[in-house]
Amino acid sequence: MIAVYVIIGIVVISIFMLIVTYNGLVGFRNQVKNAWAQIDVQLKRRYDLIPNLVETVRGYMSHERETLEAVTNARNLAQQISSAGAGERGKAEGELSSALSRLLAVAENYPDLKANQNFLALQEELTSTENKISFSRQYYNDSVLRYNNKTQQFPSNVIAGMFRFQPDEFFEVAAAEEREAPKVSFA
User: Fold this and answer.
1) How much is the pLDDT for 79?
2) Which pLDDT belongs to residue 7?
3) Start-to-end CA span in the chain (Å)
4) Is the pLDDT of residue 83 over 80?
5) How far is residue 112's CA from residue 152's CA, in Å, rounded to a whole number?
6) How many Cα atoms within 13 Å fall on the side-chain side of residue 41?
7) Average pLDDT estimate for 139-166
8) pLDDT averaged over every residue in the chain
9) Which stretch of DSSP H or E encloses residue 33?
10) Dihedral sign computed on CA atoms, order 104, 171, 133, 141
11) DSSP string covering 73-130
12) What fold characterizes domain 2-176?
């Protein structure tokens, strides 16, 4: 009779462990989805700011057409692949960040533009948004790390395999120029 209680206890504990582990995996997976949604919120904000920035700058920099077109094209590409995975999105967003950096660097050559209140306000909003995007990316990657660890560590990896929990991609910088330190010159 004691053996039956021991077997029932082991089965109950096993089922309880299965439920707890499964729910933990679901929680981590949902945390990753939420983190990705937070990145999307900030990227949408960035996409909304870029046309205003380009229009403000266009009046001052009529001969810098290719820089303005590069920003517009990079924005459009990033928006078009909004349903792609983190790897493709990271690459497109890196290209957009690079184009925006070039735009802001070119704007340094236009003193009237730098003094324009609309430009200054848009530049401040864009800078704030870029910081929020960076924080959101960091949170997303932290969430992916926790989720991937949970799906790959024993014993939860057994349950993750049974219920087809797949590891997620990190949001990585694809553009080489984003990895380099910016060059600051006061000349």
Assistant:
1) 83
2) 95
3) 88
4) no
5) 56
6) 11
7) 94
8) 83
9) helix 2-58
10) negative
11) HHHHHHHHTTTS-HHHHHHHHHHHHHHHHHHHHHHTT-HHHHH-HHHHHHHHHHHHHH
12) de novo design (two linked rop proteins) (1.20.1440)
- Both tokens of 102, joined, read 């070039």
In this prediction, residues 155-179 reach a mean pLDDT of 81
Report how many helices (DSSP H) and strands (DSSP E) the chain contains, helices first.
7, 0
Structure-token match 């080489």, residue found: 176
Dihedrals φ, ψ of 154, to 5°?
Answer: -80, 140
- CA angle, corner 59, sides to 53 and 62, nearest 5? 110
Domain ranges of the chain: 2-176
94 Cβ neighbours under 8 A, 6+ residues apart: 173, 174, 175, 178
- Which structure tokens are listed for 55? 């229009």
What are the structure tokens assigned to 90, written together?
A: 């990271």
Burial class (CB in 10 A: 0-12, 13-18, 19+), 139: middle
Does residue 68 sit in helix, strand or coil? helix
Strands (DSSP E) found in 121-168: none
60 and 116 Cβ atoms separated by less than 8 Å: yes
Distance CA 177, CA 97 (A): 10
Identify whether 155 is preceded by a cis peptide bond (ω within 30 of 0). yes
* pLDDT tens for each residue of 12-57: 999 999 999 999 999 999 999 999 989 888 888 888 888 888 877 7
Q: Which two tokens stand for residue 69?
A: 């077109």
